[in-house]
Design a protein that fits this description.
The complex is a heterodimer of chains A (about 220) and B (about 325).
Chain A: E1 2-10, E2 16-25, E3 30-34, H1 41-48, E4 56-61, E5 64-65, H2 74-78, E6 81-84, H3 96-107, H4 111-124, H5 140-152, E7 158-162, H6 170-185, E8 189-193, H7 197-203, E9 206-211, E10 214-218
Parallel strand pairs in A: 3-8, 3-9, 6-7, 7-8
Antiparallel strand pairs in A: 1-2, 1-4, 4-5, 9-10
Helix pairs in contact in A: 3-4, 3-5, 4-5
Chain B: H1 2-41, H2 43-75, E1 83-87, H3 93-104, E2 109-115, H4 117-128, H5 131-136, E3 145-150, H6 157-168, E4 173-178, H7 181-222, H8 224-232, H9 237-280, H10 292-318
Antiparallel strand pairs in B: 1-3, 1-4, 2-3
Helix pairs in contact in B: 1-9, 2-7, 2-9, 7-9, 7-10, 9-10
The chains are: A alpha/beta (about 220), B alpha+beta (about 325).
């Protein structure tokens, strides 16, 4: 589902965000991406969501070669990649419902269909009763769950999460992770960047470790999984 | 069985595609109304922008209307490209008619009108209010008058001049006058004024583009986060652009309407004094406002200006916002 072949990302000024990284993630896998801050986790996710482009090497997602994707095709690629952020990136002047509905509105779905799917997604993350609330009235954990509902509402085959539990206490983090596992059970490919090693060790999933912009360890190739 | 299923499927697909068009139209309507609602929610800034656009548009359209009125006024004088032949005192009415008959055969002349001395006197008596004075005169001081209207091709300045000098040579003619010069000057002046209005309209139209462009630029800045997130979740540039374009079009339309109101009110204020002035010249002239076609051009043009202004702004600034 996600293929990195000798991918290097160099920023203007010479700093390398990623150096020669290669790995494959199969459809339906749930993979953790870890490493110190600045090791390149965010850069890697940004390359998949086409927030940035690789300097060298090839990135392929769902059979699409992102290196060759034109600017005008980027939106259609992003519709197939749900993204979850540490800072949620919600619109604070719109209700929970409207926030979650955005990907469907953008995709041009009908009114009824949007209502149905948004409620299903909100139900899934346990926020159905708060659909009319503004995000500011919600707790951090709840806001994160709104962000998750928005990422999965259009049923993308790939979901990326960048430090989704960064600001949450352990109990809430576990809750979020069990949500991710539920999505994974229905076939969604997940790539979750986190530095919460405790959490990862308890989950027994494939782990990619980045160190100084390089892929230092892939638990799959060690037969640990 | 299979065929039936296929039929069902294709029916489903066509139903879906017509549904998509419906959704597309609905989306446009929604976005148009949403951007209208956004404008209504900030009434003061919307009003100010609208008024600025309105003033910028009212100036050229008001001047245009005034010019139109002036043209209508001068239209009455176009027929006055005629030559007046004042005959000598000795020429009798009979001789005048004989001369007129002779002139009617002239191929350069379209029409001849004879105003006999007695008729002229009567007219003067009625119009001037000097009836008593005229009464005391022993004889009619007014000459007979022949008004010559040249054929159109001889009404042009140069041939009319030739005709004039030809008519001047007739023995009975005391004095001949071509009533063309000042009409021509007036035309020249209105032509300059027209050019001026055109230049003014272009400059002010440009200013409307800039006003709308700047307003939309600020709007884009204010909605930076929204644009960024919309791009993150796969919103196309067309999708993001749409509300701003509607915004600009609304600004243009409202600006056009307010310009029209300003012009109408100004004309209303001018109406009475103009009627009084026209009355002093014994003219029934009335200021005419914008007709439907002019109004259509004004509103359509202003909407288009607003749309273009926002298009330029959106095109310039939307690409600068990329999610990170």
């Amino acid at each position: 589902m996600i293929h990195f072949d000798n991918v290097t990302k160099r920023y203007p000024g010479g700093h390398e965000g990623l150096s020669n990284v290669s790995f494959h993630i199969e459809p339906g896998e749930m993979v953790f991406l870890t490493g110190h801050s600045g090791a390149g986790k965010s850069t890697l996710l940004k390359l998949i969501g086409l927030l940035e482009r690789s300097t060298r090497g090839q990135v392929r997602v769902a059979g699409r070669n992102l290196t060759r994707l034109s600017r005008s095709q980027i939106p259609y690629h992003r519709r197939e990649v749900g993204m979850i952020f540490q800072d949620h990136r919600l619109l604070y002047d719109r209700t929970v419902f409207d926030n979650v509905a955005m990907p469907l509105v953008v995709a041009g779905l009908g009114h009824l269909e949007i209502g149905r799917r948004v409620r299903a997604a909100l139900d899934k993350v346990g926020l159905l009763s708060k659909e009319r609330d503004l995000p500011v009235t919600l707790s951090g954990g709840e806001q994160q769950r709104v962000g998750i509902a928005r990422a999965v509402v259009s049923k993308p085959p790939v979901v990326l999460a960048d430090e989704p539990t960064g600001n949450l206490d352990p109990a809430l983090s576990r809750e979020i992770m069990s949500l991710f596992e539920q999505f994974n059970e229905v076939g969604v490919t997940l790539l979750i960047a986190t530095h919460d090693l405790d959490l990862i060790s308890r989950m027994d999933r494939r782990i990619l470790v980045l160190e100084k912009s390089r892929l230092a360890r892939d638990s799959a190739s060690e037969g640990a999984c | 069985m299979i065929r039936k299923q296929r039929k069902k499927q294709s029916a489903k697909i066509s139903a879906r595609s017509s549904l998509r068009v419906d959704i597309w139209l609905m989306r446009h309507l929604q976005v148009a109304l949403a951007s209208l609602g956004r404008l209504v929610r900030t009434p003061l800034s919307t009003l100010m922008t609208t008024l600025v656009i309105g003033i910028a548009l009212a100036l050229p359209s008001g001047l245009y209307l005034l010019l139109n009125n002036a043209e209508a006024l001068s239209g009455n004088w176009d027929g006055a490209a005629s030559i007046s032949l004042f005959l000598t005192q000795e020429t009798s009415d009979k001789q005048a008619h004989e001369l007129a008959n002779k002139l009617r055969l002239d191929p350069a002349i379209l029409q001849i009108q004879v105003i006999e001395r007695s008729v002229a006197l009567e007219e003067f008596r009625q119009l001037s209010g000097f009836a008593d004075v005229l009464e005391s005169l022993k004889e009619n001081p007014l000459p007979s008058l022949i008004i010559v209207e040249p054929q159109p091709e001889h009404a042009e300045p140069a041939p009319a001049e030739i005709l004039l000098s030809r008519l001047k040579k007739i023995k009975e003619v005391d004095f001949a006058q071509l009533d063309l010069e000042w009409v021509r000057r007036f035309h020249a002046i209105t032509e300059i004024a027209q050019r001026g209005v055109l230049i003014l309209a272009s400059l002010l139209g440009l200013s409307v583009l800039l006003i709308v462009g700047n307003t939309i630029r600020l709007e884009i800045q204010n909605r930076h986060a929204e644009i960024e997130i919309t791009k993150l979740i796969g919103g196309t540039n067309a999708f993001i652009r749409r509300p701003f374009l509607y915004n600009g079009a609304w600004y243009g339309l409202f600006g056009g309407i307010s310009a029209w109101l300003m012009v109408s009110i100004s004309l209303l204020l001018l109406d009475n004094p103009v009627a009084r002035l026209a009355g002093l010249y014994q003219s029934g002239f009335e200021l005419s406002g914008a007709d439907l076609a002019t109004l259509g051009v004004l509103l359509g043009g202003s909407t288009l200006l607003g749309l273009t202004g926002s298009w330029i702004a959106v095109g310039r600034h939307l690409n600068e916002i990329e999610p990170t």
